[in-house]
Design brief:
2 copies of one chain form a homodimer. The first copy, chain A, is α/β, with parallel strands linked by helices. In chain A, 45% of the residues lie in helices and 19% in strands. The two termini of chain A are 28 Å apart. Chains A and B meet through helix 5, helix 7 and helix 10 of A and helix 5, helix 7 and helix 10 of B.
Chain lengths: 294, 294
């Protein structure tokens, strides 16, 4: 494959709290390899994040029948969770990476670039956490996504927390129990002291694991589940209005919570959503191409 | 003091997440010494909790001009945070304590005993956390207090969390900023990324430290502060109704948040509150006397 032996290569990296994905393309935009590795959130350890990025890159190079020496021809675009602060980004880019160039954005920002093919637009990412981002006229605006439990409304973690709260209130006889509140308590053997012990160390992912119960009972008409999901949908709509007000004309919803949340979204929001043009890795690749062209 | 050299002694211990207090009384109910030591929550380390209890006891014995050998004449009543589970209590009581007898309840339960002179009644404790307890006809019922952020409504931590949430929504342009939301953001240099960094390790006490800002701005008529405090007061009223429904005829509010919360409580609640007869240590002493008499 002569085309791969001397020309520039472009690498997109999507690094999050649970895994790191890599995609390698030629100058012509042909994908020649992909790779996968463990978590890559610099906030939880820069060394581990760099290691995951290099491991995912290694797998992508292998898939393209290239050796590590090809890294010197790679322009990399990285989208990483936990680099929202300029100081975080500066610190991360001090890393002695093996690439010809390396540009960095947050994971939400590359998702936005990818969803709108590099044009202006906005996204709301709804996963374990949640975050709104608009990129308009060269400006980036972030709405929400300041972490759990102070922010991240309508995320999986937020929905799970709401479910545990209502389940405990039902257990205490303050609100009427429903199938959802009983199902949530059943995951703790119907013993609130087990909730006490669990939440001493529970993080967003632990709360998020309860969200599927809420969607399942919501679909079956459970009153408590419906109230939680209507509130979450209203929170999403508020963020959407804010992003539109910032001048974004395209808006996409992304993330694992979007599918089951769909039926609960207000009509005005549903009717004005745009299907994403590409995935976050395609946004990371756009970042790589743009940064080396500057 | 001949009366102290051979008769039984009674010790009350009130052990919480920030300190441990001790009060030593004669059989006749005369207080002969008090003592203070560090945190005594077995959930955060049984050895440290036992050490704090012994240190507070040591100070109380010193104040009474008694030596450690007097511990063998002491009937102790302990009220400790974090012993809500029967298993926690059993484990704790395996401790090779130096007392003649040792009985254990939660800190909220001794507060309830103390507030009603050992008679039936209920309390809602509003501090950094919150908890409702009713003791009626020999039965203990607990309402709320399953921890932060899944429970503990209307606690200092809960009020602080609500304030940070609303401050971030105002920062994002989703709700109108007020003096409160600006004051909360000012504690983070008006930089939401500082909130992200802070909340990575913030615990209930850290959130609780923001509660005074809410009370201060609420008293000045701030709309966001007023909404948070009205919600918190409604949560307290719900717990109160539940405790009354359990058969409790007396109800007292206890804890640092009660004073500033007063003006926000609904009239029906305010008019039906009972002043506490005694403090939590008096309840711990009642526990000590009852347990050794059985």
């Amino acid at each position: 494959m002569a085309a791969l032996t001397d020309t520039a290569l472009y690498l997109g990296i999507d690094g999050g709290a649970t895994r790191c994905r890599a995609r390698l393309q030629t100058a012509a935009g042909v994908t020649v390899g992909e790779g996968l590795a463990g978590p890559a959130n610099p906030r939880h350890g820069q060394a581990a994040a760099c290691e995951a990025i290099l491991a995912a890159t290694h797998h992508a190079l292998q898939a393209a029948d290239l050796t590590e020496t090809a890294a010197g021809r790679i322009h990399a675009g990285l989208g990483l969770a936990g680099v929202g602060q300029a100081a975080d980004r500066r610190q991360f880019l001090n890393w002695a990476h093996p690439f010809r160039s390396c540009a960095l954005m947050t994971d939400a920002e590359i998702a936005c670039l990818g969803a709108h093919g590099g044009e202006d637009g906005a996204v709301i990412v709804l996963g374990t956490g949640s975050c709104g981002v608009a990129m308009v006229a060269g400006q980036v605006m972030r709405v929400g996504g300041w972490g759990f439990p102070v922010s991240d409304q309508a995320s999986g973690a937020w929905i799970g927390l709401s479910a545990v709260r209502r389940a405990l209130l039902a257990h205490d006889g303050i609100v009427d129990p429903t199938a959802l509140t009983k199902a949530v308590m059943a995951t703790f053997d119907t013993d609130p002291e087990q909730v006490v012990a669990w939440q001493t160390t529970a993080g967003p992912a632990d709360y998020g694991r309860l969200a599927p119960l809420v969607f399942e009972h919501g679909a079956a008409g459970d009153a408590e589940a419906a109230a939680i999901l209507r509130n979450a949908a209203a929170d999403v709509a508020q963020v959407a209005e804010r992003l539109w007000a910032s001048g974004a004309r395209r808006l996409s919803l992304l993330g694992g919570v979007v599918g089951p949340m769909g039926p609960w979204l207000p009509d005005r929001l549903k009717e004005n959503l745009d299907a994403p043009m590409g995935d976050p890795l395609s946004g990371a690749l756009l970042l790589a191409r743009r940064s080396c062209a500057r």
